[in-house]
Specification:
Layout: H1 6-11, E1 13-15, E2 20-26, H2 49-61, E3 68-73, H3 81-129
Parallel strand pairs: 2-3
Antiparallel strand pairs: 1-2
Amino acid sequence: MNKPSTLFSQFYSLDKLTNCYMIEIALDEYTDIFNEWDPAPFKRREIDPDLKLYLEGCSQEIPINYPIEIYFTIPHQVRNLVTEEEARDGLKNYFSFNIYFIKRNLKKTSIKILNYIFLGFVFLWVGISFS
């Protein structure tokens, strides 16, 4: 793991225990994490589009070789450990689902690339053999 950069430490807090840069997000309630139009339970919900955009922007600013953790703060009077665990599971499921589709698309793209390379060599061989 790389040593933390002082430049990123100005914009993102560094968790001393995990040595991860923290993307800090303040919430009013747990439902702010998820899309308000999605009626599914937390475990299967889409995350809020604005939150998704914010997380993508922050994660692009931090180099990929630095670990990131998302740190949510919520008012004490709203805090509920059961709902918090459901929201955590929902976020894990959302990101796991996205990783699955990214890997699947990457595999399809890799197969297409290999097919194109093979066809390129076939056409090259035909062009050289029958010139």
